[in-house]
Design a protein that fits this description.
- The protein is an alpha+beta fold and 455 residues long.
- The protein folds into 3 domains: 59 residues; 166 residues, no CATH class; 112 residues, Roll (Chitinase A, domain 3).
- 52% of the residues lie in helices and 11% in strands.
- It contains 14 helices and 7 strands.
- The chain has a 4-stranded antiparallel beta sheet with strand order 4-3-6-5.
- Helix 5 packs across helix 8.
- The longest helix is centred in the first third of the chain and has 57 residues.
- The C terminus is likely disordered.
Length: 455
Amino acid sequence: MAKKQEQEESQDARRNRRDVLLERKSSAERQQVRTVVLAVVGLLLLILVAALIIEYVVRPNQAVATVNGDEITLRQWEERVKFQRAQLIISLEEITELQNGDIGMTQQFAGQQIGLLAASQAETLGQLVLDQMIDEVLVRQEADRRGITVSEAEIDERIAEGYNYFDGESPTPFPTSTATVEPTPSLTPIPTDVITEVVDTPTPFPTATLGPTSTPRPTATPVSEETFQELLDEDITSFRDLGVDEDTYRAVIAAQILNEKLLEQLADEAEVPEAGPHASVYVLYYATREEAEAAQAEISSSDFVTVWNTVRSAPVDPAAAEAGVTPARASEFLWRNEESLTTTFDEEIAAMLMEINLDTPTEILEQDNGSGTIVYLIMQVSGREIRDFTENKIDNDRRQVLTDWVADQRLTGVHQTELWRNRVPSRPRLDSDYFIAQPTFTVAPVFVPEEEDGG
């Protein structure tokens, strides 16, 4: 009996040891599984954290462009794109408000701005913003070298001027155009009802310059400080609602002021001329070479004055107009500089007009009117002298100095990356109604007599 009990106890002990070993083995296996699971989860969390760090810390601080060692980071560029989108949206909404909510009219007036906010033009807007930022870095670097700075007070003043607030002082008046004294023509054209307006053709500016809208010219009724603050607060609130902070807005204003200060120094150093050769020109236009040759023969048998006066004073022939016949035309351009003549005609003709003898008809000249149709010209210069350029031309020429300087600086020391191309911000977004064709109505055409250019 005792022996049997000992055997049972021995068997129980063996079972207990076996159970303990199995439990230990099972526990070890469970521990291994937990370890593997925790390792996998930890690895996934590590990958997620690394991805978040790369996405929100590393990548935003990577350079989208390097300008002489100074980096423009992805974050800076993204914030600037958002600002530009917000600026365009606010501008379009203001235009629509002025049009009594008519989006169709806004589409007609500001189609290009709307297009820049379309998803299909994301890279276009992104590149324009990046180019602008590169130019600003180049300007800032040169300004630093020259000791040119912009104070917070100057930024505040510029912002206030944009709202016609001048701290209780009268706004600086813009120069009024000075009447141009017309020359005593060497020809004696017959007086007609057509008035020749003296106009200086402006030099085209580079397109797509981004940033805040141009500072409005001061009006005769500057606003009060209270009104200014209300308007500013409204706009700052609009920017914030669109995800743009005030610091970005002020930074763009500061860049504009710095740009203007450097422009003044560079233009002064370049000694941009304020006067130059001008010519007064009489022109005869013909639709066919045969008509021009007939006029040329008539000029040879009489003189240019007689032919020009005859064409100028000829009444309109309704029958010819209905038949599609283009009549001869006589025009007068008073005191035009070579650049303006180039815009009206072409570079070769403009250069010739600055050199040929006075009161001497040219040979028959050909000019493409822009639609593939050739127009035949006979011209005569009636006067040529050194005259002051218009304020508009002088301003344009001074601006061109900075434009050329920036273009030269871009040739070296500027490197762009492709990092930004798939990261162009799509927010803030313009209301989708602006991208939908709006109902339009047809306005009956109104005939307006063509006015001649002058000056």
